[in-house]
C-alpha cells in the first residue's frame, strides 16, 4: 500500500527553523513528506537543506521546475502551508503566483486537493485590512484555515514563541481532510 504524500510548504516566519520537527511528526503519522520553501525561507535554512533532503528523501523545492523537466516529487494527497506569512496568505487569496509555494497552492485549490493553511504573523500584521479578507476568501475556496481559536492565534510583535508553533494542528487537519475525501465528503 502506498504511503500518503504530504507537500509541506514553509514560509519565512520564525517557526520554519523548526520545520524538521513537523516533518518528523508527519512521518511518524505515516506521511511521505515533500518539503517546499518560499525563497526567503530557503535562505534561512540554506545550511540545513542537505539535512532536510536526507530527512524527507526528496529534494527541497523553492522554485518552479523548468519546462520539460520531469517531476521529482510523487503526487500529493494533501498540502499543508505552515507557517504561512501575511504575504503568502494574501498572495494565495489574490492568486498572485510569483513563487512555487503560492503557485502550487493555487493549483491545489483548483484541483480540490485537501489544503490546510496555518498562518504565523504577529497581531499588528493580523490587523492589516487585506488579511481578514484573504482568510475568508481562502476558507470560501475550501482551504482549511487554522486561524483563530483552535488554530494559530497571533502574539504582539516580538512576543512570538516559534518553538511552540502548533504544527500538530496542521498535521491533524491534513489527516482529517484526506480521510474525509476518501469517504467521499468535503476535504
Report on the structure:
There is one protein chain. The protein is of the alpha/beta class. The chain has one domain (4-64, 73-182): 3-Layer(aba) Sandwich (Rossmann fold). Helices cover 41% and strands 15% of the residues. The protein is built from eight helices and five strands, in the order E-H-E-H-H-E-H-H-E-H-H-E-H. It has helices at residues 19-28, 39-44, 49-56, 86-94, 100-111, 123-126, 129-140, 167-182, and strands at residues 4-10, 31-37, 78-84, 115-119, 144-145. It has a five-stranded parallel β-sheet, sandwiched between helices. The longest helix is centred in the last third of the chain and has 16 residues, at 167-182.
Write down the secondary-structure element order.
EHEHHEHHEHHEH
By CATH reckoning, the class would read Alpha Beta
Content-based structural category: alpha/beta
Neighbour order of strands in the largest sheet: 2-1-3-4-5
Number of separate structural domains: 1
Shape: globular
The end-to-end distance, rounded to whole angstroms, is 22 Å
GO molecular function: catalytic activity
InterPro entries: Flavin_trans-like, Flavoprotein
Domain Flavoprotein: 13-120
Protein name: Flavoprotein
